[in-house]
Amino acid sequence: AYGVEVRDVIDSVEAIDMDSREKIAFPAKACGFGYRTSRFKGRWSGRHIITAVVFRLCRKPRFVLDYPGVREQVDALGPVTLDTLRQAIITIRRAKLPDPADLGNAGSFFKNPVVEPETLHRLQARFADLPHYLQPDGRFKLSAGWMIDRCGWKGRRIGRAAVHDRQALVLVNLGGATGREILDLSERVRRSVQETFGVDLEREVLVVP
Predict the structure, then answer these.
(1) What's the CA gap between 133 and 87, in Å, rounded?
(2) 208 falls in which pLDDT band (50, 70, 90)?
(3) Cβ contact 164:93 at 8 Å
(4) 74-113, pLDDT tens digit by residue?
(5) Which residues, 6+ apart, have CB-to-CB distance to 85 below 8 Å?
(6) Max CA pair span of the chain
(7) Is residue 127 within 8 Å of residue 109, measured between CB atoms?
(8) pLDDT tens digits, residue range 121-155?
(9) Alpha-carbon torsion 68, 69, 70, 75, what sign?
(10) Opening angle at CA 125, ends 124 and 129, nearest 5
(11) Is 204 a catalytic residue?
(12) What distances in angstroms separate CA 194 from CA 6, 38, 133, 144, 156, one per listed residue?
C-alpha cells in the first residue's frame, strides 16, 4: 500500500499442507504475488495453513513518497525519516478508513479494476474525470471507490449494513448485520457499477461458505 508492495520484501512463506500435513517453504517467486492476490487466494486456495512469512529488509531505507498525500503529510511532520513516514501513513489511513474497533469492517472490500486502454477510452468519453493510473503492462487501474461513489452508494445504508460515508470501498456493519447482509449489499454495489460503467468489480475479501 501507499506506493510499496509487500511482495517486494517477502523472502519466503512457510506453510503446512492441509492434505499431507507436511511443512513447506515457498520462495517468494513461487507464490504468484499480484495486485492484492497470490496463489494462496487463487489455485492454492484452501490447501495450506500459512505459519510464517520471512521478510528481507534493507539496512538503508528507501523512501517512497509519490503516493497521493504521503509527501504532504510527511512534510507536515518534519524531516523524512522512517518514523515520520510511518506516522504519515497511519494518519492517512485513519482519515480514510474506519477503525474496526469502533465500526465493524474488513477494510477495502473491492479491488480497483485494471482495464485495457480501449476500455478506459470508452469510459473517458462519458466520464472525463474518471481517475486512472497507468500500470507497467500498459493497462490502467481505475478507482473502484470513485465509481461506487458516482453510483450514489457512499454513505448509503441497507438495513444494518452500509457503504462507509468517507470511503466508498469500505462496507461497514452498523451493528448486528449478518454476513449475508454484507454480501447482499456488496452484490448490489457490484451490479450498480456494472450497469453504469460496464466494469466488473472483484471482491478483495474472501467469502467463506
Answers:
(1) 25
(2) confident
(3) no
(4) 999 989 999 999 999 999 888 878 888 888 998 889 999 9
(5) 63, 65, 70, 74
(6) 54
(7) no
(8) 999 999 999 999 999 899 999 999 999 999 999 99
(9) positive
(10) 40
(11) yes
(12) 30, 25, 20, 11, 18
**Mean pLDDT value across the chain:** 92
Pick the catalytic residue from 38, 108, 150, 190: 108
Which of 115, 174, 184, 107 shows the shortest CA–CA distance to 143?
115
- Burial status of residue 141 (CB atoms within 10 A of its CB: 0-12, 13-18, 19 or more): middle
Whole-angstrom distance, CA of residue 52 vs CA of residue 160: 36
Spatial contact of 64 and 25, defined as CB atoms under 8 Å apart: no
Measured distance CA(200)–CA(191) in Å, rounded: 8
Which residue among 12, 14, 36, 181 is the active-site one?
36
Residue 36 annotated among the catalytic residues of the structure = yes
Q: For position 29, what pLDDT does the model report? A: 95
- Quote helix, strand, coil % in the chain, to nearest 5: 30, 20, 45
Residue the block writes with cell 522512517: 82
Exactly one of 38, 186, 190, 204 is catalytic; name it. 204
Q: Please give the model's pTM, rounded to 2 decimal places.
A: 0.74
- 192 counts as catalytic: no
Cell for 138? 500498459
pLDDT at position 46 is 87
Q: Using an 8 Å Cβ cutoff, are 73 and 88 in contact?
A: yes
- 37 pLDDT above the threshold of 90: no
* pLDDT score at 191: 97
Q: Determine the 3-state secondary structure of 65 from DSSP.
A: coil
